[in-house]
Design a protein that fits this description.
This protein is an alpha+beta fold. Helices cover about 20% and strands about 25% of the residues. The chain folds into two domains: about 200 residues, no CATH class; about 80 residues, no CATH class. Strand 6 and strand 7 form a beta hairpin. Helix 2 packs antiparallel against helix 3.
Length: about 350
């Protein structure tokens, strides 16, 4: 019995999955069944050698610390402006590089009597600057300033949410089924603002030290491809060491959780169900998917997401981790679409 996986790092575009050695580790208990979850690019997680589900079909192990810290409670829904500004930053970076190249070649153009634009110097204070540079620099700074402004606004919204004692929502359910529908009850003062609910399942990133142990790597040595050097003071349970970039635009560290819900890279979500009362039926993702499981390398996580339209705080997402019962029959091979690692690219909940 063993677990085999090739989990996607934060930025999988820099790596070829077929060129990476899979991580292989033993299964320490006879729980659950065999399954394989993969993407078209070549990333996958797999358990083999167990057969069908026998005995207990609901996970008894506690939720990992990453669930309590990053996947529980209230989250903001990322604004579309974040995605637009990121694309704008990429565009102005190209403009900046082309401008520098043009200014570097300008003396050669003058020697060949080729007319140039914007190469004349403009004096500001004690220094001279090319006119073209004074035009391009504000263009480069504009998306950065707008992005910072939006981030600060989201942090203020999060502060107001944490300070609002009336913002309470609870999902009453013992466990959910990995197939079909499950009836849940939504309670709390904020339940009157709930508009949609959905059941999501995905693969949590494995812990860094388990990866290194499975690959027989020295924790203080060179990390394997796709992983970064460990940062001093980094909480091991909070990531797998592949964060080659910002997972969310900005965050606070004095509050539990993040501003935005971090996406699970291999995941699927059931259809959004309109909330008309306190009793709601939510649908499991198409599959069936494996039930809840928290092993050393592979961790299958289920959660209920409730979208709320609050009159003061705007669109909010409330996340409740749950345990899902394993399906009794064999689990077919699941092919999923690779989710972007940046929270701002998450698919928004529907609106009424």
């Amino acid at each position: 019995m063993e677990e085999v996986y090739r989990h996607p790092p934060f930025d999988p575009r820099r790596l070829k999955p077929t060129e990476l050695d899979p991580v292989i580790g033993p299964i320490d208990r006879a729980f659950g069944s065999d399954f394989r979850i993969e993407t078209a690019e070549g990333w996958y997680v797999e358990r083999r050698g167990l057969g069908d589900v026998e005995g207990e079909s609901i996970e008894s192990r506690p939720f990992p610390s990453v669930v309590k810290a990053q996947r529980t409670g209230w989250f903001l829904e990322p604004r579309p402006l974040h995605r637009r500004l990121r694309r704008m930053v990429d565009g102005v970076a190209i403009v900046m590089l082309l401008t520098l190249l043009y200014l570097a070649l300008a003396p050669g153009f003058d020697a060949l009597n080729i007319p140039t634009f914007g190469t004349n110097s403009v004096r500001l204070g004690l220094l001279d600057y090319p006119l073209l540079g004074l035009i391009v620099v504000p263009l480069i700074l504009t998306p950065l300033i707008l992005r910072l402004t939006v981030n600060v606004g989201d942090l203020r919204r999060q502060t107001n949410i944490m300070a609002d004692e009336r913002l309470r929502l609870e999902v009453d359910v013992d466990h959910v089924d990995s197939e079909g529908t499950t009836r849940i009850k939504i309670d709390g003062l904020a339940s009157e603002h709930a508009v949609f609910a959905s059941l999501q399942c995905g693969v949590l990133a494995p812990r860094r030290h388990h990866i290194l142990n499975a690959l027989s790597r020295n924790p203080s040595g060179q990390p394997p491809p796709g992983m970064t050097t460990a940062l001093e003071g980094m909480e091991p349970a909070m990531g797998d060491g592949t964060g080659l970039g910002e997972e969310s635009p900005m965050g606070r560290h004095d509050w539990p959780g993040d501003v935005y819900l971090r996406p699970m890279r291999l995941a699927s979500r059931g259809a959004w169900t309109s909330v008309a009362g306190r009793d709601v039926e939510i649908e499991a993702p198409e599959g069936p998917w494996p039930g809840t499981m928290y092993d050393a390398l592979i961790r299958i996580h289920w959660e209920i997401i409730v979208a709320c339209d609050h009159p003061e705080h705007g669109r909010l997402l409330h996340v409740t981790p749950v345990r899902a019962r394993w399906p009794q029959g064999p689990i077919p091979k699941l092919t999923v679409k690779l989710t972007d690692g940046r929270a701002e690219h998450a698919e928004p909940a529907p609106t009424r």
